[in-house]
Amino acid sequence: MRTLFDILKKDREGTFQWLETANDIETAKARVMKFSSESQDEFVIFREIDLQVIGTFRAMQTNTVVHRELPEQQLGSFAD
To answer: How many CB atoms lie within 10 A of CB 7?
Structure first.
């Protein structure tokens, strides 16, 4: 069974909107980095297999991106 990662957008009112699904964590990270460079909203990577939030991304006023995620060793146990 493949691990899929949903990418969600959380707007300023706290509402989540599904954007797309990625087949691997690296693709999901790249996509949210792109999305967060274009928006001040928060983006979430959600792992479908165990219903866990893997990371959150938010662009800051300085045009840098804040990235928080679970340690890589935890992600490795869910590799495809």
So the answer is: 21
